[in-house]
Structure formats: C-alpha cells, structure tokens
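ARCHIVE CARD
CATEGORY: sequence design from structure
SOURCE FIELD: tokenized fold
FIELD CONTENT:
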C-alpha cells in the first residue's frame, strides 16, 4: 500500500467517525489521545498520518509522544525522551502487562489500541465520549503563566494528578537511517515536555498557577493516578 493510499484510507475512516461523533457526545471535555511513536519504527508512519487528521477535531486532544527504545537500530529519534517511554510502561503496568509497542494509542487514559488502525482508534474515542466526567476544568493563560481551576461534582473518591504538557504543533523530519531510511515523515502535536504540577484530592475546588514559558501550546490534564482515566483536559493553542 502506497503512502498516498494509506492517507486516503486514514482520511476516509476519520471522516466517517467525525460525522458520527457529535451524536454520541456526552462528556464536556475533549478526549485525550496519546500516540506512542518512533522515527525508527516502520509501522508508525500511518499512525503519524492519522494524527494529522485527529488534530482537526475539536472533540479530541491528540498528542504524539516519541519513545527511545527503537534508537538502537540505527536512527536516533530527534523527539524521543526516556520519560515518554516510562509513561508508556506505566500504562502497561497499570493493567498488569509488561508489553509496550509502537504505534500505540492510549485513548482517555483507559483504552489501549493499535495506532495504525483508524477504525479501532475511532471506536475507542466514541467509547470515551460516552463517559460522563465529574470534573469541570478551566484554564486561562496570561503571558508565561497559566491559571488552572477545577472542581468535581460529585467529589472524587481518589486523588487526581494535574499535568501540564507543552508541544510542537508540526515538524517534518528527513530520516537518514534505520527502518524509515530515506523517508520524510510529518509529525503533529509533538510533546516536548510533560510535567506533573500537583496532586488534587478532588474534594474541594482547585485553584493553581503554573509556569508555561514561551509560545508553544499548552495542554492541562486532570488524570486519575495509575496512570488511569483522564477526567478532564483543556488545550490552549
């Protein structure tokens, strides 16, 4: 299958999902989709192309996290971080597994699906859209500061973690070695920093100020520990 054909399939599948998603929408917060990918993975470019479609939906916050465990095969991923590998491992451990792979998408912190299967990803997004979250999250930005407000109704039964993510909207990389040697691949919403800034008991409303220096977009995530279900997320582009 050529790259053009793959992109056509991705666009068609996502277009079908986009047309159906509004009717099933239950939660007020967009669905968080995390793609674990690598420039050294030959199976990843279709998933990276799918990300270009996912970011167009206002009902989805899609983020690409580049892992470093394929760097040994000849090409060092220019966006990879061991922290993102550890996050993917934590997701696996949370369900009693040790297996990690690329491309993998984690949808809403709960659904684990193959990132190069648009139909499977779209179904997972629909499932997460049908969930009702008790958390209302508001985020505003003033220069290098962001102001985070959250409240839960009913109150949370377990603490949640407040996380601040920065990302690069898009970059095209010419890959010189490894499984994708000779290809130019476009990556979208590339995570450059992921910080936990507070643990929130979820009994009383939260007000928090965090630093977000520079012009890069920001995502704020409220997530159950584990990591587990994403209770709310807000994106400031």
């Amino acid at each position: 299958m050529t790259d053009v054909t793959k992109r056509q399939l991705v666009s068609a599948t996502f277009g079908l999902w986009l047309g159906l998603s509004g009717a099933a929408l239950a939660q007020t917060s967009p669905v968080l989709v995390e793609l674990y990918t690598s420039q050294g993975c030959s199976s990843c470019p279709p998933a990276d192309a799918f990300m270009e479609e996912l970011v167009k939906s206002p009902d989805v916050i899609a983020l690409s996290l580049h892992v470093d465990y394929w760097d040994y095969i000849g090409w060092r991923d220019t966006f990879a971080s061991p922290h993102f590998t550890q996050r993917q491992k934590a997701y696996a451990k949370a369900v009693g597994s040790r297996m990690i792979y690329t491309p993998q998408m984690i949808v809403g912190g709960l659904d684990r699906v193959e990132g190069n299967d648009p139909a499977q990803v779209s179904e997972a997004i629909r499932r997460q859209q049908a969930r009702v979250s008790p958390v209302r999250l508001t985020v505003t930005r003033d220069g290098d500061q962001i102001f985070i407000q959250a409240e839960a109704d009913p109150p949370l039964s377990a603490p949640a973690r407040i996380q601040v993510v920065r990302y690069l909207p898009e970059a095209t990389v010419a890959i010189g070695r490894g499984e994708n040697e000779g290809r130019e691949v476009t990556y979208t919403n590339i995570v450059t920093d992921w910080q936990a800034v507070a643990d929130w008991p979820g009994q009383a409303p939260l007000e928090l100020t965090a630093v977000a220096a520079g012009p890069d977009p920001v995502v704020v995530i409220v997530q159950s520990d584990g990591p587990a279900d994403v209770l709310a997320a807000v994106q400031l582009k």
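CARD ANNOTATION: The longest strand covers residues 184-200. Residues 19-26 have pLDDT under 50 and may be disordered.
SHELF: design records, drawer C
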